[in-house]
Amino acid sequence: MKYSALIQNRKSVREFSDRYVSFEDIDKIKTYYSKSVRRLLPEVETELRMFGLDARAVLEGAAGYKQFLVGSPQYMVLLSAKAPGAGENAGYIMEDLILKLTDMGLDSCWLTFTDSEHVKTALEIDSSLDVAAIAAFGYGVKTTKRLRLNVLSMSKVDVAAQRQYFSPKKGVGDLVFLDSWGNRDGVEAFIGFYDDMLWESFYAASLSPSYLNRQPYGFVLRDGRVYLVQAPDEHTGEIDGRLGLGIVLLYFSALAEQWAGKLNWNLEAAGALSLPEGYKAIASAAL
Ligand SMILES: Cc1cc2nc3c(=O)[nH]c(=O)nc-3n(C[C@H](O)[C@H](O)[C@H](O)COP(=O)(O)O)c2cc1C
User: Fold this and answer.
1) Residues 91 and 109 in one domain
2) Which of 40, 64, 101, 142 could bridge 106 with an S-S bond, Cβ 3.0-4.6 Å?
């Protein structure tokens, strides 16, 4: 897939037409999932389930920003075994599927949830795996309205969520630091050393979707490694936080791997940075 273009074109769509996605296209998505989808932790068992329009009513109250379930004729749910890094892995996989949908001309929107068992009961999912990620997809209603999303609180989202909007994202300069968190000195020169490739990878990362568009993370470049750091955020819960970290790892990796080869993210030994209180190194990889 042409990740750079897909990442730049993808946006959350919250209003869908009644048009169903064809069986053929659903099969394409399933085949992509089983044969080609990118995985952060291939050893963690996952399963993809698809649901139709019936799911809309039962998901009400179980998923989506407060009182606002994105109505769509199709939903996909990623199930996962419990494991360290399972949340990040689910974010990584689901976002790769979402980019596949974008490639196929389909629109989508992530749906938040807090209780796997609640969603499993609502959708009558009988499995030992947990619900790890949910997205609505289909054909978006075309609109010329592009509103800015006010993301400071849930109540402000409710106002904007009635229509489509695009969400302004953090720039590369707010996301990438050299040697220590918050240090911008020398970042440009360092990135410049890699021609445009490293910059493009961080630019892709800056476009990552996140819960309420909070983007509670950043990168530190140090000693030839890139570290993903989770920033504290009072609005983002555990599940959404981990999904967002997986998504941003996918965006960065999909571009960086085009020139750096396969990145081996180490999710365990990422503690070499001294970070401000509440910040946490999540993963690191050699560049
Ligand atoms: C883990 C996660 C959960 C999300 N949950 C919801 C949701 O429940 N409802 C919704 O309308 N958007 C949801 N979103 C979409 C974000 O609001 C959206 O990605 C963000 O505002 C950036 O906009 P963009 O996707 O158009 O770039 C979620 C996104 C992520 C990554």
Assistant:
1) yes
2) 101
With the C-alpha atoms ordered 103, 13, 170, 234, is the resulting torsion angle positive or negative? negative
Whole-model pTM: value is: 0.93
Last residue of a domain, one of 138, 165, 192: 165
Instruction: Provide the domain limits for residue 274.
Output: 172-286
Instruction: Note whether 138 and 243 are same-domain residues.
Output: no
Q: Is 172 in the pocket of ligand 1 (CB under 6 A)?
A: no
- Is residue 139 located within the same domain as residue 196? no
Residues in the chain, pLDDT under 50: 146-165
Whole-angstrom Cα distance, residue 35 to residue 261? 20
- For residue 4, what pLDDT is reported? 95
251 lines ligand 1 (CB under 6 A): no
**pLDDT on residue 287:** 87
Q: Is 211 in the pocket of ligand 1 (CB under 6 A)?
A: yes
Rounded to the nearest angstrom, the distance between the alpha carbon of 183 and the centre of ligand 1 is 29
What is the pLDDT at residue 158?
Answer: 45
Instruction: Kindly give the distance from the C-alpha atom of residue 110 to the centroid of ligand 1, in angstroms, as a whole number.
Output: 5
Q: Which amino acid is at 101?
A: L
